[in-house]
Write a structure and sequence with these properties.
The chain has 394 residues and is of the alpha+beta class. 48% of the residues lie in helices and 14% in strands. It is built from eleven helices and eight strands. It has a four-stranded mixed beta sheet with strand order 1-4-5-8. Strands 2-3-7-6 form a four-stranded antiparallel beta sheet, with no helix packed on it. Strand 2 (145-149) and strand 3 (152-163) form a beta hairpin. Helix 7 runs parallel beside helix 9 (314-336). It starts with 6 loop residues before the first helix and ends in an 11-residue tail after the last helix. The chain binds flavin-adenine dinucleotide.
Length: 394
């Protein structure tokens, strides 16, 4: 692939820079971390601005409100947004980065029309209800049950670690529709309206003092059969499409942020008089080079995704290395800021709090979307062609 910008990409870049320069100063201040109504409002207002300006859903088809842009243009958009420090996808990362894209590939025309424009306009927030207390890495062991009753499924069970479920309107949910089939073959993928009676959402408080994860309980929740995406009992295959997007392009925002933080750490080290240390310069430089290499890999993943619409296992390589390298970067930062690394607060106006916060937040990166060990299994089997992991002893 050609890494240079085409004329059209350069024109888009210039147009975006001008738009961002005019728009970003108009935004309200970023809301406090635990002010969920304000966070939802802020993120959706940003999404509406993108939509009105023609920048929502860069790669999504025009008929569903997207821009129908080329992969190259999509990457220009991501890079310009990150460089300008524009708001990120925020509470609707599931809708924009993997539920929406899954609908684009797998849903019926009616389902797409009902949801894709609403996601892009900033009218619908989605969450993901895949993991359960006993089904994380071994997701196919999930037990949330959906039983047909006329034109509806009746859903009972529990999900856990559902990010932003307390501010979501819809959920992508995996349910067991055939308990007698082999475990990967009795699962279906449903769109679930979070206002349906029988749903209880309970936020979980994390070590970071935040509450973005939730437990979600289903008690006789009735879901129209028309809300199933894909065939009944074919939900595992649909979930693999979701994971393709989640790992393939879902972490691009985190990558852009890590790249920016490598520069921020270098600037901070200079300000604190630590930049004379060649070991520190080498560590930050090596990680910055790795983030650049991962950005090049992202370009390849995005280009590949257009051939069949779904990112391949290259996404696991990206997620695996990015999540570990990000943790290494914040560890380097914590080392040179000394005791300031004991608090989230910026001391004496020096910006060190983000290092502590990002280090703790990055713990979750190596778990969410499939743990590091699971990514290693995928890379081993699907990229390197190594033998499959032996099945556990009965
Ligand atoms: C930031 C974040 C956001 C998340 N958001 C969501 C969400 O929105 N929706 C949702 O449904 N879930 C979400 N999750 C849950 C996430 O998908 C699970 O935490 C993850 O799949 C791991 O499952 P588990 O926590 O049950 O750990 P387990 O599966 O119990 O794993 C425990 C440990 O055993 C290791 N292990 C397990 N199996 C193997 C194996 N075969 N080979 C080698 N090692 C293995 C794991 O790597 C891990 O270290 C999120 C998690 C995080 C941290």
């Amino acid at each position: 692939m050609d890494l240079r910008l085409s004329d059209a990409e350069r024109a888009l870049r210039d147009e975006l820079r001008a738009w961002l320069a005019g728009t970003l100063p108009e935004l309200d201040a970023t809301p406090a971390r635990e002010d969920w109504p304000s966070r939802r409002r802020f993120d959706l207002e940003w999404q509406k601005r993108l939509f009105d300006a023609g920048y929502a859903g860069m790669s999504w088809p025009v008929e569903y409100g997207g821009r129908g842009a080329t992969p190259g243009e999509q990457l220009v958009f991501l890079e310009e947004m990150a460089d300008a420090r524009a708001p990120t996808v925020g509470v609707n990362f599931v809708g924009l980065l993997h539920a929406g894209p899954t609908l684009m590939v797998e849903a019926t025309a009616e389902q797409k029309t009902a949801h894709l424009p609403a996601i892009l306009r900033g009218d619908e927030v989605w969450c993901q209800g895949f993991s359960e207390p006993s089904a994380g890495s071994d997701l196919a062991s999930l037990r949330t049950r959906a039983v047909r009753d006329g034109e509806e499924y009746v859903v009972n069970g529990q999900k856990i670690w559902s990010s932003f479920a307390h501010v979501a309107d819809w959920a992508e949910v995996l349910v067991r529709t055939d308990p007698d089939a082999p475990k990967h073959k009795g699962i279906s993928w449903l769109m679930l309206d979070m206002t349906t009676p029988g749903i209880t959402v309970r936020p979980i408080h994390t070590a970071l003092g935040s509450s973005e994860f939730c437990e979600v309980f289903f008690d006789e929740v009735r879901v129209p059969i028309t809300n199933r995406v894909g065939l009944e009992n074919d939900g595992w295959r649909v979930a693999m499409v979701t994971f393709g997007f989640e790992r393939g392009t879902g972490f691009v925002g985190e990558l852009m942020e890590a790249r920016r933080h490598a520069s921020d750490l270098a600037a901070l080290a200079q300000r604190l008089g630590k930049w004379d240390d060649p070991g520190l310069r080498r560590e930050i430089g090596a990680l910055a080079a790795e983030f650049d290499a991962l950005w090049a890999l992202t370009k390849r993943n995005v280009t590949e995704a257009t051939s069949d619409g779904v990112p391949g296992p290259g996404g696991s390589v990206l997620k695996l290395r990015l999540c570990e390298a990000a943790q290494e970067l914040y560890d380097v930062g914590r080392r040179f800021i000394g005791r300031a690394g004991l608090t989230f607060d910026d001391l004496a106006g020096i910006p060190t709090g983000f290092i502590v916060e990002e280090r703790l937040r990055s713990l979750g990166f190596t778990l969410g979307g499939g743990t590091t060990q699971i990514q290693r299994n995928i890379v081993g089997e699907r990229v390197l062609g190594l033998p499959k992991e032996p099945a556990p002893a009965p």
